[in-house]
Each structure stands twice: as structure tokens, then as C-alpha cells.
Amino acid sequence: MNENAFQFAWFQQSAAGFDPLPLAQSLWRDDQMHGVAVSGLLARALEHAVADLGRTGLVPARYHVDLFRPARMITTTASTRIVREGPRLVLVDAVVEQEDEVVARAGATFLAPSANAAGEIWSAPGERPVPPPDDLLPAPGEHHVPMFASAAGWSDNFADHQNAGQHQTWQTAIPIVAGEECTPFQAVASIADATSMVTNWGAHGVEHINTDIDLALCRLPDSSRLGLRATDHVASDGIAVGTAEVFDGSGTLGTATVTSLANTRRTVDLSAGVEPRGAV
Length: 280
Hints:
By secondary structure, the protein is mainly beta. It contains 4 helices and 15 strands. The chain has helices at 3-6, 35-52, 184-191, 195-200, and strands at residues 11-14, 17-20, 59-66, 77-85, 89-98, 101-111, 147-149, 168-172, 201-202, 205-206, 208-210, 212-217, 225-236, 239-248, 251-262.
């Protein structure tokens, strides 16, 4: 593996923990880490904790993250605690710390899959989202700049999508730790932070910063290639709630929600076509 490929990740593992790589830098501030990297590290820790129990067949059906302190671009650690283990579920908590201070926490419920119930149940009408056309994408497994669609069609030109249209994105997840493959759960947990982009990106840029991530899944993604499509955005007195549909090449697999605060003093303006490093 060449040096450039080795650096294509959010973190480099070291004896002290996990050192953020340049891709983990946020657009809000140069010394701040973005939520994609933080969420990915939390998901990795949770997944490892469940694997250590020998429960690798469970589905991470609920995943919640609180992003209550800006994570800085310094050495970071992650730890977990098993809250409850039963025949059909495992509940796990995780925290991310920097300099002995907790900067983010997560909780996840892993459920045992079984057969679907037979009775018919209502689901939302309308067309489900689908990935961009194949001719716009590199071959599976190749990484690419996140694609967006909005009032404009699918493209990786961010300036095209600074508008008030319904946003969606299609991304290939970046490995959480250099030298490791990104698992489907790590992929969807990290990309879920982009819910803030598809729900909070409007005509003046991204004017809200999310304080959390809520992810609910009925199954694991079919790969590390995933999409999010905004389904709603409501706001009052500077507090916004955005919801997105999570989908992959096989269809819809869940929903993601973020609660955000207005942050107009540090708006991320993408009208000039600035290319994000990974997320805000």
C-alpha cells in the first residue's frame, strides 16, 4: 500500500488512540473534526464491542449520536460499555474522548433478524430514491467526490446545488481507520452525518450545525455505497429538525434525523463550488 492510499481514511491508529488525518478536518473550522469521522469512530467501537460478544449476526437497528462538543484535530480515544445483552438484542454505549474529556457519545441497539410479519402495514406512498446513473459514477469500490442532486440533477459540482430544492446525496464511505476495510455499519453510520447536508443545505448555504444523529435501520447496507434523500425539514426559533431516507443499490433501508442549531455567523457557503473534504 502506497503512502497516499494509506492516508485515505479519517484516522491513523497509534499507541495513544486514533490520530485524525487531514480528510477528517471540518469546513466549520480548521482545527475542528467533522461529524462523519466522529460518528464513524463511534460506530467502529460499538461494532467491535458486539463482535467481542460473539453476536456478529445482529442488525444495528437503532443508532444515536450526541455531538455536544466540537471534536478537535488531536489524538482521540473511543470506549464502550455493554448496557444489556439478551437473546434478541444487545444495547451498547460508546464515548469518544480527547484529553480525558468526552466530546461525543453514542448508543446503539443491535437486534436479531427473523421473518417478517404476515399482516399488511401502511408505508409512505411515492417513488423511493435510487442511486445516480452508472455513467456518472466510477466503478464500485473506487472512491469519489460525494454526488448531490437538488433542483439541479446529479453532479459533484457543489455550486450547482446551492438552492432550495430537495437535496439528496450518493457517497462511497471512506475507511474509518487507515489500513482497515470500512464495514457496512461503519459506512452508514458515518455517512448518516451528511443528513445535515441534505436537509440543511439551502439557497444561502449550510446555515445550521447538527448536534446529533439518529439512524434507524431495518437491515445492513448492501455495500459501502449509500445515499440520503431529504424527506422533511422544519425549523422554529433557530432550532431545526431534518429527516432523510437512507438507501443503497437495493432500495430503502431506514431513516436518519438530525437536530440542528442555526449557525449563520459561520455559514458554509458552497456557491463557489468549494469541494468539501468529507462533510461539514
